[in-house]
Amino acid sequence: MTPHTPPTPPAPQPPPHAERKYRVVTAFQRRLNLLMRRLPLQTLLETRGRVSGLPRRTPVGGRRVGDCFWLVSEFGERSQYVRNIKADPRVRVRIRGRWHTGTARLLPGDDPVARLRTLPRLNSAAVRAVGAGLLTVRVDLDRTGGTPRRTT
Q1: Beta-carbon neighbour count of residue 4 at 10 Å?
Q2: Is-contact 95 69, C-beta < 8 A?
Q3: Would you say 79 and 92 are in contact if contact means Cβ atoms under 8 Å apart?
Q4: Is 136:99 a contact under the CB 8 Å cutoff?
Q5: What are phi and psi of 135, to 5 degrees?
Q6: In terms of Cα–Cα distance, which of 31, 43, 36, 53 is closest to 92?
Q7: How confident is the model at residue 42 (pLDDT cuts 50, 70, 90)?
Q8: CA distance linking residue 54 with residue 48, whole number of Å
Q9: Which DSSP helix (H) or strand (E) runs through 72?
Q10: Is the pTM of this model over 0.85?
């Protein structure tokens, strides 16, 4: 006879409205991002796909402070770009049309609501409105300067 082990309690699930909100917002963002990526001055975060290995570009809002670029992920670790960062933290950020390489760091100990107060207002308001499970991301930019702009 084997000793009885108690069943593992199920992982906490987000409320049904939170899951629905996540699905609606991400479906909208996928369509909007196709347009936003083409705007020449839109800030982009380029990660490497964790499965495909292909570059993945995501429009983001944030601010450069010295040799760091700060942003807040509205869905935390559920965001695809955050999952890509976990697999490979080397990223590129296009700021004002110029590409910069760097290393992204996820900062779960940082207060993302306080961080949003230091970032551009319009994007911060949108992140607060749709976000759930906010997560601060800091990109430590390489000191070698930006990389040439890609034409693709």
Answers
A1: 6
A2: yes
A3: no
A4: no
A5: -145, 130
A6: 43
A7: confident
A8: 6
A9: strand 68-73
A10: no
